[in-house]
Amino acid sequence: MKNFGCLLCLVLLLGAFLLNPIAPQADTFRPVVRGSRGAVAAGHPLSAEAGLRLLQQGGNAVDAGCATILAASVIEFSHFSFGGEVPIIIKTASGAPTVINGQGIAPRLATREFFLARAKNGLQEKGAASIPSSGILPATVPAVLDAVVTALDRFGTKSLAQVMQPAIELADGFPIDELRVRYIENTRKIYEPWPTSAKLFLPGGRVPKPGEMFFQPDLARTLREIVKAERASRSRGRHAALIAARDYFYKGAIAKRISEFSEANGGLLRAADLAAFHAKVEEPAKATYRGYEVYKTGFWAAGPAMLETLNILESFDVRAMKHNSADYVHTLIEAMKLGFADRDRYYGDPDFVKVPGAQLLSKDYAALRKALIDEKHASLEQRPGDPANKKPLLNNGVQPALTGESRVPEAERANDTTCVNVIDKDGNVFSATPSGAWLPTVVAGDTGVMLGQRMQSFLLEEGHPNVLQPGKRPRVTLSPTLVMKDGKPLFVLSTPGGDNQDQSLIQVLLNIIEFGMNVQEAVEAPRFQTLHLVSSFDDHRFNPGVLNLEDRIAKEVRDDLSSRGHKVEVQAAYGNPSAPTVIMLRPDSGAIEAGADPRRGRYALAW
To answer: Closest by alpha carbon to 75, among 116, 42, 97, 53?
Structure first.
């Protein structure tokens, strides 16, 4: 009888559970990834595994972040490879936030006059002169290795050999995925005329199938040669060994072979350009938002536009507007338009131009700019401000000449970026946006190094802060992000997405700060983006008033925004082209939480 009573209790409990199931706190595709000793978030599971491996071997967040970048440079070649670039933000547990400026420079032969002459001679599509989006001409100096070595030298603990080992293993072969296969197929007609590229991407003369092993023997040899140079100088100490590895690439045999290939094939890159390059260590740009401290790179990248947008938004009651309401979307979009207008007017390499950074990021200037937002009407003109004279509008602002769809063929257009974020158990944090040298790319001879396309982000407009000059860095979209509270790191986030990067990152940030979402909810939530900016790529088109909304945003919201003058275009439910990852260090428990956007296969691992 006693057993029957127990059985009856179990049946009643089971019935109560089935009638009242425990609902999950977050309705997301993926769970929050949690750990206590570290977390890594990246663009591919094997990239993230490389970073986690370094954490498990006793490395810190910088060691893990650099290992993740190098692994990604092998496996994520559709969007980033070893010949590209990588801005990094680092905050050690005891130090101040620091930026590694890992953006390559234009070759000495790359002049405005060279590309204007090409246009005059009919060597590009009709329209305003611009730098090609693909081929060998738009390559800047490969910056990834120097950025990684600089980060390791200053803030890491492991050798380059240890950090590069996962990348070498991947270059020896990895099972290729559907995304890479699709890019190999879709861009084939662009890279196939280059024998070195066709040999790599079309083994046996065909597109590989998902799950087949993909081999990069030339790149594997190059990576091993770099490690060998480090080991040969190990007796001189860690710093000297790291620099020896770096110099082998930039001043030794690899630089010579890249240069010879470039010259023989009509490229502009030369050994002297690689020898002249150094990643820079800089202070970040900074803004505060409701007590949070937000750090970005300097004005050679787009990140400060997000800071200006936050300054403008701070005086609005964003939370009261409700998440993704018409008022919220309109206000945020109009604020972003103002930030991007200033980006397009003033940003450029600070080594070549004076950017009014302090004025652009001042709270007083934000108050002037805020007054331009009409809560009932969308702006349809580009409206840069006049920070030097403390005026909300620049009187002689000229509207962009090119509008509408880019004339650059789809297969040749910029193919974006990836992202890396790491936090370790000691509170060291690392955020990076690796990019460049994506498909369709030109492989530099037998080095296995894929050459980049970042020079297309320069303009050819004489006198513009971002006009092409030899030795100059282009103004890029790459935007790693650090958020702190009360002087302590709270979370790091970054994303691919070109000109959409800061638009998505600010939405993720507000999802967490204003709307209380966890990190996974924050990256999966419906998003929107404006094309009301001068594109940083291809032929630099401006699309006034265009607003893309994922169709999960309510129809009544879309209709309301259309009535205010926004040119609304609807994307698929998860059609936003960015895909952020974010890692948070919880101040209450010390737990580390990671979120990874499923839109483009982001992945997070924790330990």
So the answer is: 42
- Which conformational region is residue 204 in: left (phi greater than 0), alpha (psi within -120 to 50 degrees), or beta? left
Q: Is the pLDDT of residue 21 over 60?
A: no
Average pLDDT over residues 491-504: 98
Do 495 and 504 touch, CB atoms closer than 8 A? yes
What length is written for the chain?
607
| Assigned token pair, 280 | 């820079």
Grade residue 413 by pLDDT with cuts at 50, 70 and 90.
confident
Residues whose CB is less than 8 angstroms from the CB of residue 24 and which lie 6 or more positions away in sequence, other chains included: none
Pairing of strands 280-282, 98-101: antiparallel
Q: What is the mean pLDDT of residues 496-504?
A: 97
The predicted-structure confidence for 274-309, as pLDDT tens digits, reads as follows 999 999 999 999 999 999 999 999 999 999 999 999
- Whether residue 287 contacts residue 310, with contact meaning beta carbons closer than 8 Å, is answered with yes
Query: 76 vs 81, 201, 338, 352, 371, CA distance in Å?
Result: 7, 13, 34, 32, 43
Using the structure block, give the residue that is written with the tokens 């193919």. Answer: 415
In this predicted structure, the answer to whether residue 11 has a pLDDT above a threshold of 90 is no
> What is the pLDDT, as a whole number, of residue 48?
98
* pLDDT at position 17: 30
- Is residue 151 packed enough to be buried (19+ CB in 10 Å), middle (13-18) or exposed (0-12)? buried
CA distance 440 to 85: 16
Q: How far apart are CA 464 and CA 383, in angstroms?
A: 16
Backbone angles phi, psi at 431, to 5 degrees: -135, 130
142 contact partners, CB below 8 Å, separation of at least 6: 82, 83, 84, 85, 104, 258, 274, 437, 449, 451, 452
Reference 495, options 431, 602, 579, 595; nearest CA is 579
Average pLDDT over residues 180-203: 97
| pLDDT greater at residue 469 or residue 2 | 469
For residue 182, what pLDDT is reported?
97
Query: Residue 147: which of 202, 102, 194, 213 has the closest Cα?
Result: 102
Question: Can you read off the two tokens belonging to residue 327?
Answer: 């008022």
CA–CA distance, 518 with 501 (Å, rounded to integer):
20
- The alpha-helical segments, DSSP class H, found in 277-420 are 304-313, 318-321, 326-346, 357-360, 363-370
The mean pLDDT value for 139-158 works out to 98
CB 361 within 8 A of CB 339: no
What sign has the CA pseudo-torsion 529, 531, 533, 539? positive
Of the pLDDT bands very low, low, confident and very high (cuts 50, 70, 90), residue 405 is confident
- Examine the pLDDT at 165 and tell me if it is beyond 90: yes
Which amino acid, residue 101?
N
The amino acid present at 102, given as its one-letter code, is: G
Question: Checking DSSP bridges between strand 546-550 and strand 567-571, what pairing results, if any?
Answer: parallel
Q: How much of the chain exceeds pLDDT 70, in percent?
A: 94
Nearest Cα residue to 86 out of 434, 580, 430: 434
The 3-class secondary structure across 124-153, one letter per residue, is CCCCCCCCCCCCCCCCCCCCHHHHHHHHHH
DSSP assigned state of 549: E
Q: Which two tokens stand for residue 24?
A: 């999950």
User: Taking a C-beta distance cutoff of 8 angstroms, is the pair 346, 356 a contact?
Assistant: yes
